[in-house]
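Narrative summary of target 7.
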Amino acid sequence: MLAYVFLAVAVGFRFLPQTLGFTPVTAALLFFGAHVPRRRVWIPVLALAASDFLLTTFRYAYPFIWDHYVTFAWYAAIAWLGTTLRNNPKPLRIIVTALLSSISFFLVSNFAFWTTGIMYPRNVDGLLTCFAAALPFFRRGLEGDLLFACLMFATPAMAHQVSYLWDKASGDHAAA
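Modeled conformation, tokenized:
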């Protein structure tokens, strides 16, 4: 259930004004993959693809072109990557997985956008310019991915600890 809540938060967060790449999308994909059966990893992909379509078409009034499908494939890959955290969700693995997700999104999405030729010439200088222009978004994306991944993956452990302390405190009062 928590995976679906985090997915809803990630989708809703995308509709906030001016997040500039600081979103819980990657963390929600990783968490979903780690906590929901593999046969359901299409759910966050479909939800995020639908939100991409709505944002691109209606909010930003940009053309919906083929490079969006590259992003959809990346969503699927990250949700699938989250399944590797299912049996071993250690903090270092979560951080490394979130970091790899951020780097891969930066490289894949900007390369795909560069190939469209919409803003940058299709040569080495254009590719480097595309990556350079995306660096501020990468920084915010990386920060958001790491922060939200840590928060999402820590939530069940924190809830368990609070429940344990609550039960212990309730038991102590009942005995007195």
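Residues 69 and 145 are 21 Å apart (CA to CA).
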